[in-house]
Automatic annotation (TrEMBL):
<feature type="transmembrane region" description="Helical">
    <location>
        <begin position="54"/>
        <end position="74"/>
    </location>
</feature>
<keyword id="KW-0812">Transmembrane</keyword>
<protein>
    <recommendedName>
        <fullName>YcxB-like protein domain-containing protein</fullName>
    </recommendedName>
</protein>
<keyword id="KW-1133">Transmembrane helix</keyword>
<feature type="transmembrane region" description="Helical">
    <location>
        <begin position="32"/>
        <end position="48"/>
    </location>
</feature>
<keyword id="KW-0472">Membrane</keyword>
Length: 167
């Protein structure tokens, strides 16, 4: 298991910051954008044709869904990024240790698909993770740690086909 190398303590305001960024990330997905575009068009058509019940339904979807999702995200973040919550990371040749107030996991280098940095957070995309990413504060994965992770991900062994050639 990798030794702890970086630590981070959540501050007041981190719950709302993490929650806003998570909600924005959800609503930037193409499928979600298309879904809301269809609902918005249906809302306009319902209002234009005088269908008050349908207009109310689509209005609730357009306003209520993001609001309900934000409440759920805030509740989750209150457990992991409440003020004083301790996070830690460590890196070695096997993988990355990630500790938060709820769990301690080691992510093997072979599991990491890509790494993104946005708004002070590092997003670690995992193979087979259905587009979801582990998000951690940038201070837990500073540039030198990201460079090391990327070098290990690029250096991981490639699978070999039965004929002996690399794939």
């Amino acid at each position: 298991m990798p030794a702890v190398q970086y630590t981070w303590t959540a501050q007041p305001g981190d719950v709302s910051r993490f929650s806003r960024l998570a909600l924005l990330r959800v609503f930037r997905r193409p499928k979600v954008i298309v879904y809301f575009a269809f609902v918005a068009v249906a809302l306009v058509v319902a209002v234009w044709s005088g269908e008050e019940e349908l207009a109310a339904l689509f209005g609730v979807i357009v306003v209520g869904f993001p609001l309900a999702l934000f409440v759920v995200i805030v509740r989750v973040n209150r457990t992991t990024v409440r003020p004083g919550a301790q996070w830690a990371t460590g890196f070695n040749s096997f993988g990355m240790l990630l500790e938060d107030p709820l769990a301690q996991i080691v992510i093997g280098h072979g599991s990491i698909a890509r790494i993104e940095v946005a708004h002070g957070l590092v997003y670690l995309y995992i193979h087979g993770g259905m587009g979801r990413a582990a998000r951690i504060p940038e201070s837990l994965c500073p540039p030198e740690a990201r460079a090391y992770l990327l070098s290990m991900v690029d250096a991981r062994p490639r699978s070999t086909s039965p004929g002996g050639s690399s794939t």
